[in-house]
Structure of GDP-mannose 4,6-dehydratase:
Amino acid sequence: MSDAHSPFVKLNLPPPEEYRNRKVALISGITGQDGSYLTELLLEKGYEVHGIIRRSSSFNTNRLQHLYADQHERPNKFKLHYGDLSDSTNLVYILAQVLPTEIYNLGAQSHVKVSFEMAEYTADVDGVGTLRLLDAIRTVGLEKHVRFYQASTSELYGKVVETPQSETTPFYPRSPYGVAKLYAYWITVNYREAYGMYACNGILFNHESPRRGRTFVTRKISRAVADISLGKQSCLYLGNIDAQRDWGHAKDYVEGMWMMLQQPAPEDFVLATGETHRVREFVEKAFAVVGVTVKWRGSGVQEEGYDAQTGKVIVKVDPQYFRPAEVDLLLGNPAKAERILGWKRKMDFDSLVRQMVTADLHASKSLVEDQN
Ligand code: NDP
Ligand code: GDR
């Protein structure tokens, strides 16, 4: 569509090259795991960082708390705006106010199991929400000025078609979350092709950290290991312990997001470690951090893990955590990102597990001390 026929209101902006000399980032999902690491990275790089946060009756900016403190020394570099990916008008308003040079769309209902219970909401926020943000960019006439990152996911691959999974592997999502993200993936490609926007998909495999949400399996395990070792919990209940995931560290992955937006032309990239591990292996390594060896007995829903030294059962399978359709195996091939972006994950699997358990041990011990 030519500008003459554009239904949108355009702001009076400087030419794209001049506009991009400013370094202004807007992040949806800034309160999440990745949002907090990305904010730190961009502030370090001298960006002015704006984030979209949802109004909540409870405190939802824990992961950004330390940056608030910093703001006294770095005024105007970090600002939060109330908003939601379900509210187009609000997105247009924020964009027109902030005039970002880079947008990172990390906001999502990101829990795969929850997406089976909230399928329509997940489609609206994760799928149509991406369209809303892309259209908001066009509405204010930023389509040639701004660079757009879409948080795509290895959940797009879903059912195993080939491994390792790369940018050319066909998609076969297995959850309402995966299907919503498939829409977001293609609308990002479509707006790049249709309107010449600098828009790219980062197809990121699972990445974790001590800031990971507590209901994702790695954090659920690291917290339970800490609490069990401190005598505050007796058993960890899990679903499919044979699922295989390619787990990296979130801090490495947000760097890859930024790198994708610094290329001469927009492209889609896989970020992964190239290794896969079963959930049960994460359990074993996590307990090993506190000196416990886990042995397994039984099978299927009867399977349980026990402490090899004491015989105490510390892990049980609970079918309530099974999913209506599962993604059995994720194993990514990051060769393209390594070759073109020069990206490489820094933290390996063992160090990731150790860091997460150590952080939860520390947090759980401080909680005991606080209560005393
Ligand atoms: P989190 O679940 O930790 O964070 C999600 C963020 O999205 C939170 O800030 C949340 O806000 C926000 N959000 C939720 N609903 C809305 C909404 N309606 N409007 C605006 N914002 C909303 O996810 P991660 O940080 O782990 O992941 C970031 C992104 O990357 C997500 O899109 C996720 O799907 C995707 N992804 C994640 C991977 C991973 O392994 N971590 C791998 C591949 C992709 P609030 O705090 O208020 O809930
Ligand atoms: P995933 O992460 O679905 O891969 O999505 P999650 O940690 O939830 O599950 C990983 C695997 O562990 C199995 N599992 C359990 N999962 C949870 N949450 N709780 C349990 O008790 C449990 N027991 C076993 C799951 O069945 C699954 O196979 C994450 C999210 O961050 C997405 O937003 C992101 O797109 C993908 O990673 C890549």
